[in-house]
């Protein structure tokens, strides 16, 4: 199955009304685990690496691993650059063969965000790649180092931004935050419905860790088709590795290696089933 674009994957999800998991990966084991989950559930997926995590997983190493794994996968896989802010890094990801990039201009004015998104769309077009942008601002932060204040997406802003850019996928802030939710997520479904009515592109939900299956499905019903998940995967890996270490005084490296793969796979599978993308490859 070829490496595909995000646009292609999300168009199908839109037609059949399911969500696609966009799983952040940080090393070879998490790449293998997430792809294993997709293959075992026969689901399309998106593999993504975030700009803020490149200090741990350099793009010149993690990028080619992601692309090579996607090319060999038995299900459609898009390879996406998450929360890109620097044009030169976005270009590097495209040069490595990523089929999709996000330009995150959520901290800019609508005008500046739209203008820079349009530049990234022009660049991505040369590679045949898709583009995601963000309007409003998802709270928390990608690497947990900042506590960015959430700015709820205004329906009128989403409409205007989409009319200007015609971006392939649009991330919204409807009460979702990156990282661990401090209290029960309280998503604004009526607002999401309003955004969906005025934006023709599939919508994206960041901060997918900790949302209930019921809420995921309501989001999907109201236009969310790409759901980003990072914290849940990494926390599951830590939990399983900790238990493994506690149970085995003498641990060999490859048991540990397999434990990471299995934990990433287990977490991704649970999300794939919640999003109902299983058997949609
Ligand atoms: P979580 O870490 O909260 O799952 O969010 C992931 C994300 O939105 C990546 O862009």
TrEMBL record:
* A Pfam family hit: F_bP_aldolase
Coiled coil where? none
Cofactor or coenzyme needed: Zn(2+)
Q: Which UniProt keywords apply?
A: Lyase
**What one GO molecular function would you report for this record?**
fructose-bisphosphate aldolase activity
Q: What class of enzyme is it?
A: lyase
Which parts pass through the membrane?
none
EC number(s) from the headed UniProt entry: 4.1.2.13
The family database entries (NCBIfam families) matched by this protein are listed as: cbbA, PRK06806.1
Name listed for the protein in its UniProt record = Fructose-bisphosphate aldolase
Originating organism: Sporomusa silvacetica DSM 10669
Q: Which gene encodes it?
A: fbaA
């Amino acid at each position: 199955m070829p490496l595909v674009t995000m646009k292609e994957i999300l168009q199908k999800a839109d037609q059949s009304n399911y969500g696609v998991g966009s799983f952040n990966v940080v090393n070879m084991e998490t790449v293998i685990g997430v792809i294993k989950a997709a293959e075992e559930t026969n689901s399309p997926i998106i593999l993504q690496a975030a700009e803020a995590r490149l200090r741990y997983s350099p793009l010149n190493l993690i990028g080619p691993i992601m692309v090579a794994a996607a090319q060999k996968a038995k299900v459609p896989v898009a390879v996406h650059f998450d929360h890109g802010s620097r044009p030169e890094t976005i270009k590097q990801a495209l040069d490595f063969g990523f089929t999709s990039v996000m330009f995150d201009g959520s901290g800019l004015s609508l005008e500046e965000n739209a203008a820079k998104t349009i530049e990234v769309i022009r660049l991505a077009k040369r590679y045949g790649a898709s583009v995601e942008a963000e309007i409003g601002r998802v709270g928390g932060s990608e690497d947990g180092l900042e506590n960015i204040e959430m700015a709820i997406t205004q329906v009128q802003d989403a409409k205007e931004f989409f009319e200007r850019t015609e971006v392939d996928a649009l991330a919204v802030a409807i009460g979702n935050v990156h990282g661990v939710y401090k209290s029960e997520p309280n998503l604004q479904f009526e607002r999401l419905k309003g955004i969906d009515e005025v934006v023709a592109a599939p919508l994206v939900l960041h901060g997918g860790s900790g949302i209930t299956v019921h809420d995921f499905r309501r989001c999907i019903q109201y236009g969310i088709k790409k759901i980003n998940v990072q914290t849940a995967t990494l926390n599951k890996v830590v939990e399983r590795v900790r238990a493994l270490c506690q149970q085995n005084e003498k641990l060999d490296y490859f048991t540990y290696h397999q434990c990471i793969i299995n934990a990433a796979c287990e977490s991704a599978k649970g999300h794939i089933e919640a999003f109902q993308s299983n058997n949609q490859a």
